[in-house]
Amino acid sequence: MRKTWLLVMVMLAGAGTWTPAGAQATGDKWDVFVAPYLMGAAMSGKTTVRDVDVDVDVSASDIFSNLQFGAMGMVVARKGNWGFGSDLIWMALGTTVRNTNVDFNQGAFAFYGLRALGPAADVTFGMRVNTLQGKLAFKTLGTDRDQDKTWVDPIVGLTLRSPRGRPVTARLYSEIGGFGAGSDFTWQIFPSVGIGLGKTASLELGYRWLDINYESGEGNERFGWDMLTQGPVVGFGFRF
Q1: Taking the model in full, what pTM does it have?
Q2: Residue 142 structural domain
Q3: Taking the mean position of all CA atoms in its chain, how far away is CA 38?
């Protein structure tokens, strides 16, 4: 709970800092931003597959040598003070821990509405569908254990952004969710910088932290994913 309240206070403080009083809608035309990404992923935490716990701790410096890549794409559309967005992530994660191969396919598909708090901030609200396909291969025993899970988390968040039309722009996406309805708790922080390549295109660079604490089932059906997934992202943004 202490972590939950800390994140809430940071988000509220950010809103108060970035949002001018009396801000108005930015326009009456649709503004659409599309950004496909690639991500290098590191993991730290614990996973449980069919009641078998495995601790995972692979640092960010080992991203390219130990872990597989993932892909993600973001779409944000707004008109005036309102809009909607989607944030789609798929990562194939793999490493070896104590003679055990740990392989996970992780999908996180977020859909949310947004309401502008001003020209520099939006509040977001929606849901994220999480899906995990987990496999533990014990090399010394010659046995495998696999298990798949899908669940839905409610999410709320705050996005802070610098003004458009500059050669370099900044964006900070943050969210919290789960609240026991799906995950016990989940949070995400995603700062990024856009470098203009013209009127409608940009190079997008950032770093993403996504933490999920989920557990279900008992005995041989017990499944858990208490994991921080993080890594650099690079991609291109297109505005219509």
Answers
A1: 0.80
A2: 2-13+40-235
A3: 13
CA-CA distance, 92 to 110, in Å (whole number)? 18
Tell me which residue of 75, 63, 67 sits closest to 37, measured CA to CA: 75
36 dihedral zone (left: phi>0; alpha: psi -120 to 50; beta): beta
**CA distance to 4, 85, 208, per residue, from 112 (Å):** 20, 5, 18
User: How many structural domains are present in the chain?
Assistant: 1
H/E stretch holding 15 = helix 2-18
CATH number assigned to the domain comprising residue 179: 2.40.128
Q: Which helix (H) or strand (E) holds 214?
A: strand 201-216
In a domain, 94, yes or no: yes
19 CB-near residues (< 8 Å, 6+ apart): 117, 118, 120, 121
d(CA 162, CA 26): 13
Instruction: Supply angle C-alpha 154, 111, 115, rounded to 5.
Output: 85
Nearest Cα to Cα of residue 131 among 109, 150, 147: 150
Residue 176, Cα to own-chain centre: how many angstroms? 10
- Condensed to tens digits (0 to 9), the pLDDT of residues 172-228 reads 999 999 999 999 999 999 999 999 998 899 999 999 999 999 999 998 889 899 999
